């Protein structure tokens, strides 16, 4: 931690009550380019008073924002999606500089968030109640979906555009106000998206941003004026957030760690399956909660391992800004050392190192946090490289004799974000989708993240809370369903007199 006044680099601002303000904090973190170690900016760890001010601003703004017509809210997000499209390349460049992923992948990061913004613009058809007419004599029952109040989001480093865009657009479109805490490792693209959101017309106080670490996270979980918390990140932190926020009486949804398995059956299209696995395991340097990091090869498919390794060797490791790059750097020096340590643990525990990416060298970017594609075979449950989420460009391969054994392996793992099967058998695919205990299933595609018409549906150890972060489920998460039972009297019903029974007849 350093004092920002001692360094001639930009400082990341807070957004409080419609103004981008300099924090008064004495604690700051450097935002580092992971390919070069260049200091791009400094981000403050907001003070308790600044968090309180952000929440107070959101609470005050809620009084009028909740009454804003739904069409007016939708038009803001129509404008917002247009602005994001116009600034796509700028946003991707900022993201690549601070996070490391390739420019095309950075554009994909922004685009997947843009899809949720487009969905938010359709709020008029999403936030609909139900009505039953004349459920009893002259009685109607209907529901209305009302906003909760101040909501908050805590986002991770690996998707600094997409995941904030999962959160605040849907929360605000449903009539809530919002306090966002981006990752302190790469907040710059998030703040540019926030600037565009203000330009699109989000009113003062409806969106606020604070930065920080554990103290700010705890303040969000504890604050009595925050009604709901959405989180994406590690299992350790997500479990803490869920327990602390729900203990404080808040709604919480936490999307957490993963160990996503893919199964290749011997009847699969070999070329398509191996290409898909290489892309899904090593894209974004494996820093995806939906990375296909674990492969179960069934029967004769195990003979394809050498071809898989050869395909992985063709991937180009370089800075994300360089044309033709397939695998960029890891987010930090600490992440780099952790991934290398897990690779070393895999070799000690007896897994076969088919491809070793630890000694990769990138000319011109010698200080970058690079690990090349790495593949282990002969992996078994109980090994650290299987039991832990590596979050790097490392693919671990297990062997199974049958589809039944593959399903048993996956269902025994505590995580449940995503899984996939590669096969040309409809019967095998249907059996897999029915018997697998994982929230998101891909058939002949490795990363089964649904479009925003649906919702992200991770399960088991990968998720706490029963509602997903976008789609129809998040409209339910960010609203309170109120049931109204109404009778309007006419002369006939008025003549009935006193009725002491529970019946509405």
Feature tags:
505 residues; alpha/beta; 7-stranded mixed beta sheet; 6-stranded mixed beta sheet; disordered N terminus; Ald_DH_C; NAD; methylmalonate-semialdehyde dehydrogenase (CoA acylating); Ald_DH_N
Fold topology:
Layout: E1 14-16, E2 19-21, E3 28-32, E4 39-44, H1 48-65, H2 70-86, H3 88-99, H4 103-120, H5 123-126, E5 131-136, E6 139-147, E7 150-154, H6 162-173, E8 177-181, H7 188-200, E9 207-209, H8 214-222, E10 226-232, H9 235-247, E11 251-255, E12 261-264, H10 270-282, E13 294-298, H11 305-313, H12 333-348, E14 352-355, E15 374-377, H13 384-387, E16 394-400, H14 403-412, E17 415-416, E18 419-422, H15 426-435, E19 441-443, E20 459-460, E21 463-464, H16 472-477, E22 479-487, H17 491-494
Parallel strand pairs: 7-8, 7-10, 8-9, 10-11, 12-13, 12-18, 13-16, 15-16, 18-19
Antiparallel strand pairs: 1-2, 3-4, 5-6, 6-22, 11-21, 14-15, 17-20
Helix pairs in contact: 2-4, 2-7, 3-4, 3-7, 4-6, 8-9, 10-11
């Amino acid at each position: 931690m350093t004092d920002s006044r001692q360094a001639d680099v930009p400082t990341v601002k807070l957004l409080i009550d419609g103004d981008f303000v300099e924090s008064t904090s004495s604690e700051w973190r450097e935002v580092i380019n992971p390919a070069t170690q260049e200091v791009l900016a400094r981000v403050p760890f907001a003070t308790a008073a600044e968090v309180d001010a952000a929440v107070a601003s959101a609470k005050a703004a809620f009084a009028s924002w909740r009454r804003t017509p739904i069409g007016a809210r939708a038009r803001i997000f129509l404008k917002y999606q247009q602005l994001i499209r116009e600034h796509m390349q700028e946003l991707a460049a900022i993201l690549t500089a601070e996070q490391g992923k390739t420019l095309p992948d950075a554009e994909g990061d922004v685009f997947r968030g843009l899809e949720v913004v487009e969905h938010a613009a359709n709020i008029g058809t999403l936030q609909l109640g139900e009505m039953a007419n004349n459920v009893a004599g002259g009685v109607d029952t209907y529901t209305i979906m009302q906003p909760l109040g101040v909501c908050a989001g805590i986002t991770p480093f690996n998707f600094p555009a997409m995941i904030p865009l999962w959160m605040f657009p849907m929360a605000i479109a449903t009539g809530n106000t919002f306090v966002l805490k981006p990752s302190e490792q790469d907040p710059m693209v998030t703040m540019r998206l926030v600037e565009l959101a203000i330009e699109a017309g989000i009113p003062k106080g409806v969106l606020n941003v604070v930065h920080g670490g554990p103290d700010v996270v705890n303040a969000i979980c504890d604050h009595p004026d925050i009604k709901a918390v959405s989180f994406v990140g590690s299992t350790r932190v997500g479990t803490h957030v869920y327990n602390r926020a729900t203990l404080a009486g808040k709604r919480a949804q936490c999307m957490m760690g993963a160990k996503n398995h893919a199964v290749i059956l011997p009847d699969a299209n070999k070329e398509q399956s191996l290409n898909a696995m290489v892309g899904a395991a090593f894209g974004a340097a494996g820093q995806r909660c939906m990375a296909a990091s674990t492969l179960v090869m069934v029967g004769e498919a195990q003979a394809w391992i050498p071809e898989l390794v050869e395909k992985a060797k063709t991937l180009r490791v370089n800075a994300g800004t360089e044309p033709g790059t397939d695998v960029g750097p890891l987010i930090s020096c600490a992440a780099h050392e952790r991934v290398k340590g897990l690779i070393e643990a895999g070799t000690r525990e007896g897994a076969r190192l088919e491809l070793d990416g630890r000694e990769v060298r990138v000319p011109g970017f010698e200080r970058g946090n690079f690990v090349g594609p790495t593949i282990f075979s002969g992996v078994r449950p109980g090994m650290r490289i299987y039991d832990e989420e590596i979050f790097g460009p490392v693919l671990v391969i297990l062997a199974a004799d049958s589809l039944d054994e593959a399903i048993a392996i996956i269902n025994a793992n505590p995580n449940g974000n995503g899984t996939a099967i590669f096969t040309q058998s409809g019967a095998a695919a249907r059996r897999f989708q029915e018997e697998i205990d994982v929230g998101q299933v891909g058939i002949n595609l490795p990363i089964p993240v649904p479009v925003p018409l649906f919702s992200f549906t991770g399960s088991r150890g990968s998720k706490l809370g029963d509602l997903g972060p976008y789609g129809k489920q998040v409209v339910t998460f960010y609203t309170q369903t109120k049931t109204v039972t109404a009778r309007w009297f006419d002369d006939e019903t008025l003549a009935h007199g006193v009725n002491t029974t529970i019946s509405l007849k």
